[in-house]
Amino acid sequence: MDNSYKIKVQNVTKEYDLYKSQAEKLRSFFSLRGAKVPHFWSLMGISLEVKSGETLGLIGVNGSGKSTLSNIISGIIPQTTGVVDVRGDTSIIAIGAGLRGNLTGLENIRLKALMQGLTNPEIDALMDDIVGFADIGDFLYQPVKSYSSGMKSRLGFSIAVHVNPDILIIDEALSVGDDTFYQKCVDKIAEFKDEGKTIVFVSHSLKQVEILCDRVAWIHYGTLKEIGATADVVKHYRAFTKWFKGQTKKEKKHFQRQMKENQKSFDIDAYQQQVTDELQAADPNATNVAAKVKKDFYGSVISEKMGWGTRILAFAVAIVFVLTCLVNISGHSVGDVVQHPGNLIHPETVLHDTDAGNPR
Ligand SMILES: Nc1ncnc2c1ncn2[C@@H]1O[C@H](COP(=O)(O)OP(=O)(O)OP(=O)(O)O)[C@@H](O)[C@H]1O
Asked: Which has more confidence, 102 or 316?
């Protein structure tokens, strides 16, 4: 096994269908011609590796795809194409990530810890530490939906760092806490680093990134703009934000629109071909490159879209369901309806002798 990395992400894309409503989604599902739904590519081919014991920062403007990438690495959402190889247990800390609003803080601690593979006695042993670190007082007994974002972050952070994950993914969780809690988290992250754990740190705070990260990946409107030493990437990103701030309002809008247009018109087949061509050019004697790339793109991906076989099956099940309902409503037996389908729309007449028993 190649031990040079703890997390590997290769040619990862993420496509969203931009349905306007649930009804449109349903229509498109049953549409035989394949309804024209606009697509948006939140990630357009990201490849990077995180080494064991490394802290990688993810930076980029709002909507650039940082959370999409960290959620894919955490296994919360699937990628559309590409390989995601994560070697170890991950624990994600994002504001409220994985917390159930209707459950109390205490119940959430138990649930998340159980989901992380801990046993009840192990959770009991950790409970005081988790509660102490979160330090949210009596809110512990209240449903999480009544928490402020700071409180959710405290609880989420406390659970995540106490279940002893191999890989910690922190998505903006430090941006909402107060200074004391922030320092506690930074100390805990430093402790994790010392223990040799791998960390992915998503943040808008370049100061935090500079303090905590060994390397930084700059995600720019769905692409990996740059990855490298923290000081270099942060410097280039600062130069970009300075340039952007110097644009007029109209220029900024134009730039953002252009970027989003690129993400809408991204062509996954062309990208696959480009990857194939690049690999073939790098090694002209390599064989079956196209097949290997196709396997890399789709081999480990469970399609979120229904194939034709599944659609036809779903359609058949729906028809059987409707027919069964109609048979029930009509009052005829199944055999009767099979022999005389017309009976389906003629409810069985139950004759009541209204005069029966009436004295004439
Ligand atoms: N479920 C979804 N359906 C459609 N588009 C989505 C969905 N989730 C995210 N997106 C889009 O994907 C893009 C990337 O979003 P993401 O949340 O990953 O960005 P981000 O870099 O984490 O942003 P921020 O810094 O604001 O948190 C955005 O344009 C967002 O609108």
From this structure: 102
Count up the domains in the chain and report the number. 2
Go through the chain and tell me how many residues it has.
Answer: 360
Are 81 and 189 part of one and the same domain?
A: yes
CATH number for position 200? 3.40.50.300
Distance 219 CA to ligand 1 centre (A): 12
Domain hosting residue 246, numbered range:
5-88+166-280
Confidence at 225, pLDDT banded by 50, 70, 90: very high
Is there an atom of ligand 1 within 6 Å of 19 CB? no
**In the 8-state DSSP scheme, what is residue 286?**
-
Å from CA of 42 to ligand 1 middle: 7
Ligand 1, atom 31, lies closest to the CA of 63
In a domain, 95, yes or no: no
Complex ipTM: 0.97
Does 197 sit in the ligand 1 pocket, CB within 6 Å?
A: no
Residue owning the nearest CA to atom 10 of ligand 1: 42
Mutate which of 18, 43, 64 for ligand 1 pocket (most atoms within 8 A of beta carbon): 64
Question: What's at 290, amino acid-wise?
Answer: A
pLDDT band, very low/low/confident/very high, at 65 (cuts 50, 70, 90):
very high
pTM of the model: 0.80
Instruction: Tell whether ligand 1 has an atom less than 6 A from the beta carbon of residue 67.
Output: yes
* Residue 123 domain flag: no
66 lines ligand 1 (CB under 6 A): yes
Write out pLDDT tens, residues 179-215: 788 888 888 888 888 888 899 999 988 998 999 999 9
Percentage above 70 pLDDT, the chain:
85
- Check pocket membership of 198 for ligand 1, CB cut-off 6 A: no
Residue 45 in contact with ligand 1 by CB distance below 6 A? no
Among 63, 46, 65, 43, smallest CA distance to 7 is for: 46
Contacts of residue 287, defined as CB under 8 A and 6 or more positions apart, other chains included, come to none
For residue 79, tell me if it sits in a domain. Answer: yes
Q: What integer best gives the mean pLDDT of the chain?
A: 86
Which of 261, 308, 249, 292 is CA-nearest to residue 83?
Answer: 292
What are the tokens at 311? 């659609």
Give the span between the Cα atoms of 61 and 262, in whole angstroms. 16
The span from the CA of 190 to the CA of 196, in Å, is: 10
